[in-house]
Design a protein that fits this description.
By secondary structure, the chain is an alpha+beta fold. It is built from four helices and five strands, in the order ββββααβαα.
Length: 128
């Protein structure tokens, strides 16, 4: 099996995932996944496509991720891994699709407007 390269995005985070045959090592930005994502929910999000398709220890995964926060980065990695698992075996699509793991979340941060404090919050109006 050759190396599979897939891209996942969430908010402003972009993750490039390289999946090769191996024994389950996950490296994120040249660090171990447990060192990069310190909390259990984020580690669960990253591993979710692997556990659902029963591929926990079958692949070595290298990830380059940038932009956004750690939650957006974890979800970007999850999307890229889901796409890679579909390329490994087409039957995985039927497992991942109903869970929504193959859908790119389109929500982005709304831009700040001029004359306002934030995107929707206004400056306080006082009548004196």
């Amino acid at each position: 099996m050759e190396v599979i390269h897939k891209i996942g995005r969430r908010k402003t985070a972009v993750a490039r995932v390289y999946v090769a045959q191996g024994n389950g090592n996950i490296t994120v930005n040249k660090k171990d996944m447990a060192d990069y994502f310190t909390t259990a929910p984020l580690q669960y999000k990253v591993k979710q496509p692997l556990t659902m398709t029963n591929n926990d220890g079958n692949f070595d995964i290298t990830v380059n991720v940038y932009g956004g926060g750690i939650t957006g980065q974890a979800e970007a990695i999850r999307l890229a891994l889901s796409r890679a698992m579909c390329e490994v075996d087409a039957e995985n699509r039927a497992i991942l699709k109903p869970e929504g793991l193959l859908t790119r979340d389109p929500r982005m941060v709304e831009r700040k407007k001029f004359g306002q404090k934030k995107a929707r919050k206004k400056f306080q109006f006082s009548k004196r």
